């Protein structure tokens, strides 16, 4: 039984989609379908991978406290039973409030993925990729702002706002996990889609390693 068949044997409500070969790479198309934030990203990888598009409503794991979900999770095979997770959230505009929401969606998607991995008898790699795909950045401080530099430029910023700017501009997405989960290393990357096609931000990202 293939991984896809095994997935659909135990889990309903979502599809486990295999990447499509395009020349020397394998691609997924990830879309935000909400009318207020339509976006499309083509993700290219070196090897075959699988994708789950997570619905925003409460399905899959009802017992989890965090019921928020990122848009898609790509499962990249590292060896026979270990997969690296690449978690994508598409937001047309990133603000302070939306950055907090994005972090919650990353965490929710990660927990759901852990549950699915255990059901399928798979291991999750200790490196997890987090990707925010966006068109407009309203947390537009200069990249790699240090805490001191930000305080000098904007001394009256509320602590919560400063924290959001520092996390966003420095690609930090901290989760306070302990035990096994404390060993997981999360790597956040911003993916800007500056190009518009038929009124929709579009772009391509190649992911390797």
Defining traits:
five-stranded mixed β-sheet; 37% strand; seven-stranded mixed β-sheet; 209 residues
Explain this structure.
By secondary structure, the protein is an alpha/beta fold. The chain has one domain (3-207). 24% of the residues lie in helices and 37% in strands. It is built from four helices and twelve strands. The strands form two sheets. Strands 1, 5, 6, 7, 8, 9 and 10 form a seven-stranded mixed sheet that branches. The protein has a five-stranded mixed sheet with strand order 2-3-4-12-11, with no helix packed on it. The longest helix is centred in the middle third of the chain and has 25 residues, at 96-120. The chain is globular, with a radius of gyration of 18 Å. The relative contact order is 0.17. The mean pLDDT is 83.
* Structural domain tally: 1
Rg for CA atoms: 18 Å
Low-confidence stretches: none
Please, what is the average pLDDT? 83
Question: Level of helix content?
Answer: 10-25%
SSE run: HEEEEEEEHEEHHEEE
Tell me the distance between the termini: 28 Å
Helix and strand composition category: alpha/beta
**Main beta sheet, described?**
7 strands, mixed
Q: What percent strand?
A: 35-45%
Q: Counting H and I runs of at least 4 residues, what is the number of helices?
A: 4
How many beta strands in the DSSP annotation? 12
Shape: globular
Task: State the gist of this model.
The chain is 24% helix and 37% strand.
């Amino acid at each position: 039984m293939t991984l896809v068949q095994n997935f659909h044997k135990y889990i309903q409500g979502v599809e486990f989609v295999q990447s499509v070969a395009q020349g020397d790479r394998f691609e997924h198309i990830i879309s935000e379908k909400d009318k207020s934030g339509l976006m499309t990203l083509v993700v290219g990888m070196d090897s075959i991978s699988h994708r789950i598009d997570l619905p925003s409503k409460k399905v899959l794991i009802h017992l989890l406290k965090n019921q928020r979900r990122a848009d898609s999770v790509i499962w990249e095979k590292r060896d026979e039973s270990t997969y690296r997770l690449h978690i994508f959230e598409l937001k047309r505009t990133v603000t302070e409030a939306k950055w907090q929401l994005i972090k919650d969606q990353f965490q929710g998607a990660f927990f759901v993925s852990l549950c699915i991995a255990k059901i399928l008898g798979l291991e999750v790699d200790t490196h997890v990729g987090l990707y925010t795909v966006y068109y407009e950045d309203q947390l537009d401080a200069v990249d790699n702002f240090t805490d001191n530099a930000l305080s000098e430029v904007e001394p009256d910023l509320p602590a919560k706002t400063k924290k959001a700017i520092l996390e966003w501009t420095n690609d930090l997405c901290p989760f306070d996990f302990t035990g096994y989960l404390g060993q997981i290393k999360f790597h956040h990357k911003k993916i800007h889609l500056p190009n518009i096609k038929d009124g929709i931000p579009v772009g391509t990202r190649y992911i390797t390693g």
